[in-house]
Amino acid sequence: MSTTVLTQNVSPVRGPDTSARPVTLRRTVVAEWIKFRGLRSTLWTLVAMVALLVTVSVLAAWGTTIEMVDAGPGQGNVAQYLSAGYQLAQLAVAALGVLAMGGEYSTGAIRTTLATVPRRWMVLVAKAIVLGGTIAVVTMVSMVGSFVATMPFHATLGLELDFGDSEMVRMLVGLPLYLVAIALLSLAIGALMRHTAGGLTLVIALLLVVENVIALVPLRLFDLVSPFLPMTAGSKMLFDSDTLAAIDSMNTGPSLTPWAGFGVLVAWAVTLLALAMVSLRRRDA
C-alpha cells in the first residue's frame, strides 16, 4: 500500500509591515507642523497678531493725517506705518513662541515627542523651523493687509511705496526678520523655563519692563548696556534715518547701525536656543 502526498506551492503569509521609518529632520518638521496647526491657541494668537499689526497701522496713518494738516504732505514713509504695531504684535508672537515648547511640558506631551524623536536637537530645530516660517509668512500677509488698509491715507500723506529706496526696503524686510527673531527667542525661553506662564512672564519682562526701566535710570552702566538689549537693538531695523538720529541723540552709550542691532538680537536668540538645546539633552522631560 502506498501513500500519495499532495504538495502545493503555498505563498508565505505576510504580516503587517512593522519596519520603522528612520526619524529624519524633514519628518520631524512635518510632525511638528501637524501639531502646531492643530492647536486652537496657534490660530487665535496669529489672528491677534494680524489684527494688531493692521489696526495700529491704520490708526497711525489716520492720526498722522490729522496732525499734518498744517505741516503738509511728504512726512514719514509707508514702511514706517506698516510696522507701527510691532510692539503689540510682538506680544502675540512671544506668546506663541513660549506656547510652542512650554505647552508640551504643561500637558506632558513632551515625553511622547522625545520618545518618538530620540535625537532631541531635532525637536527644537523642527519647532524653530515651523515657528519661524509661520511668523514670517503671517507677518508678510499682515503687511499686505496693512498696506491695503492704509491706502486711503497715502495720497494725503504724499507717500509712495518705493522699492528703489534702500532704507524703505530695509524697514520692509526688517519687520518679518524682527518678529521671527523674537519668536525664536521666546521659543528658547519656553524650552528653558518648561512652564508657559513663567516663560511668558520672563519674555514680557525682558522685552517691555527691563528695557524701559534701564532706559529711564540715568546710570552710565545702563547707558552702555541698553543698546545691546534684544528689543532696543533689533527694533532699529524698523526706524527711518530721522528716527534713528533722534534715538542716538538721546543715548550716551554705543550707537548701533540697524543691521548691527539686528545682529545683536539674533545673537540673543541663537545663544538662548543653544542653551535650550543643552538643557533639552541633559534634563529629563
TrEMBL record:
Transmembrane segments: 43-64, 84-103, 124-149, 169-193, 200-222, 259-280
The keyword Mitochondrion is assigned to this record: no
Matching Pfam families: ABC2_membrane_2
Keywords: Membrane, Transmembrane, Transmembrane helix
Protein name, as recorded: ABC transporter permease subunit
Organism of origin: Demequina muriae
